[in-house]
Amino acid sequence: MNGTTGQTRHQDRVWSVAEHLDDVLSKIAPLDPIELQLLDAQGCVLVEDITVPVALPPFDNSSMDGYAVRAADTSAATQDTPVPLTVIGDIAAGPGELPSVGPGQAARIMTGAPVPPGADAVVPVEWTDGGAGEGPAAEMRAHSAAPQDAGGEVRVHRPAAAGAHIRTRGSDVTEGEPALAAGTVLGPSQIGLLAALGRGTVRVRPRPRVVVLSTGSELVQPGEALGPGQIHDSNSFQLTAAARAAGALAYRVGAVADDAETLRSTLEDQLIRADLLVTSGGVSVGAYDVVKETLTALSAEEGTVEFRKLAMQPGKPQGFGLIGPDRIPLLALPGNPVSSYVSFELFVRPALRTLMGLSDVHRPTLRARITDAIASSPKGRRQFLRGSHDAETGTVTPVGGAGSHLIKAMAHANALIVVPEEATEVTADSEVDVVLLG
After folding, report:
1. Are the beta carbons of 249 and 209 closer than 8 angstroms?
2. 215: which residues sit within 8 A by CB, 6+ positions away?
3. Helical pair 17-26 and 349-356, crossing angle rounded to 10 deg
4. DSSP 16
5. What DSSP string describes 141-179?
6. Lesser CB count within 10 Å: N end or C end of the chain?
7. 19-34 per-position pLDDT tens digit
8. Of 87, 106, 68, 91, residue with least CA distance to 148
9. In terms of Cα–Cα distance, which of 362, 378, 367 is closest to 420?
10. Do 323 and 305 contact (CB within 8 A), yes or no?
11. What is the helix (H) or strand (E) element at residue 113, kind and residue range?
12. What are the tens digits of pLDDT across the range 159-170?
């Protein structure tokens, strides 16, 4: 980015929230699919329908530690008159030759082991004496401690019906059955299913790489002492965490001083690892608003970023454009902590979810009864206030004031209360739109 002639357009008209969001999303497309190893695909969106190549489970197997038997042989078993059966061997989970269970016989079987020929039921070890010749057994004795239990005799105290404690082949899913549909976000259970189906890799849209940086010479890294006029950089941490929560791979860049050349070189360095760039601060009308100064000076070859006034509070100043040779989307957010976070939720999060290829990119919105009145709201602006939503009562309570610096209130909110542009106040017990953040 070496140009100095201004190609960035600055429009004086005021944009609505919807107009700005529509413009952002119209210029962002889902990332191209790639093949990833299963664990690397966690959090990604599947781009192919997955069908079951082989039934699960692939063979009849025991759901209990016990004895594989012929159900008819146990029909007369009671606590007082147990049925003795001859134990013909052990069947452990894993490969191995299976003995055939004949009349009056039983094979000691472990959970997950294949049911042997001739057997049609499994008697849990607790329904037997475990081969010890005493009362009901609590568990099997270890083979190393009592190898004799793999033979000899076992007494069954309760009857088992045919099919008891057997997980039949295909009882989970059958061969050719749909397993996962394209568009599914791969979480732990979906990864486990793919592994069970024998898939080592899967085709997905990758998680977007997001670079977050904040600007301001007053910003100090958390953990460092503050000097006069300094504050700790909270925005880059908050926005990076928000990007990760949205499903992105987010990288935080240390705060950049209010110097155009420093910001320019930082952005150039970060373009190579970014699918989307997010800045906070420096987008308003001040003499030291370095983000606007730097991005307004881009040449046509370097991209265009437009700075706008939105009919919203907080978050009136916003910037958006595509920069670098690959035209990476950049969203420039205001610097006040609440303004930047609200802007992230409204504009950056939907952009990230669009890059991921998700069909639903928006936070859920519902109606709720507001417990406290809102005395004033700026006419012509859509106001977003922090709120605490109670799902059980269907109510929402404002948290903190309207100030865009009140970061503590944001930390105690789980929703945004939406006051429409035409409203200048909201009475208690009236219904409002609520954007859920959790």
Report:
1. yes
2. 255, 256, 257, 258, 263, 279, 280, 281, 282, 290, 291, 335
3. 30
4. P
5. PPTTT-GGGGSSEEEE-S---TTTTEE-TTSSB-TT-EE
6. C
7. 999 999 999 999 999 9
8. 87
9. 378
10. yes
11. none
12. 999 999 999 999
